[in-house]
Amino acid sequence: MPVAPVDLSLTALKTLPLIEVGDNLSALIDVALAAAEFKLVDGDILVIAQKIISKSEGRYALLDEIEPSAEALQWAAEVDKDPRLVQLILDESKEVVRHRPGVMIVEHRCGYVHANAGIDRSNITDFEGRERVLLLPIDANLSAKQLADYFARQGLKIGIIISDSAGRAWRNGITGFAIGSAAVPALRSAIGASDLFGRPLEVTEMADADELASAASLLMGQGGESVPAVVIRGWDWQASEQDASALIRDKKADLFR
């Protein structure tokens, strides 16, 4: 098991521009690092907000192009939401888990349980006067791997975490969590290790990628802060093929479904 770091630092990259469809994020991150006079070193972890991944990948939907189905119209009446938005939520989801007026909790097609399938209108501009929304990446783990591979080609061992924000079934407020990761382990097992008094740990696992995403979220903010990337330095980790899918609890073991 990795040893807890003595010092952990978080550095916000504040000079990334507003991201447009087709932008080369790798190149823009390099420019932002140079502008900040910050050089990545082996072992750094780059936490990137989902929103700029989705924007660069063109994951927009124009609401005036959406034709709600009968199912979407029925759900829209029940949850008091725009039927076109409900249709997008259904399209991006495997099932509706819970609902109340104003929100649909769904199992996203990528497996994580999320409000409104992670579809967002905040910090999104209209397109030629037409209202649009932003969807989550098609495959956030693949997006993370592509970035990790980019730095690997430069000879750097850099972990990548793609973060989003979500509420929790048993707590108020939202927190950052990982929807994609690469290189850095997402879930760390302590099963078999001993506690302070020598008792073996039987079920303990640490959601490292979620905790790192949440730490970075403190600097990213949730509104107009415009800090979509944070470098975490000092975390002890070993390269892994594991990605953020390891964090998704099997439905049969989910007591909230």
Describe the structure.
A hairpin with a 2-residue loop joins strand 8 (159-168) and strand 9 (171-182). The model has no long low-confidence stretch (mean pLDDT 92). The protein has 257 residues and is α+β, with helices and mostly antiparallel strands. It starts with 8 loop residues before the first strand and ends in a 24-residue tail after the last strand. The longest helix is centred in the middle third of the chain and has 14 residues, at 140-153. It folds into two domains: 9-59 and 137-253, CofE-like (60s Ribosomal Protein L30, Chain: A); 60-134, CofE-like domain (CofE-like fold, Alpha-Beta Complex). The protein has helices spanning 25-35, 50-56, 70-79, 83-91, 140-153, 208-220, and strands spanning 9-12, 45-49, 60-62, 93-100, 103-108, 113-115, 132-134, 159-168, 171-182, 188-189, 205-206, 229-233.
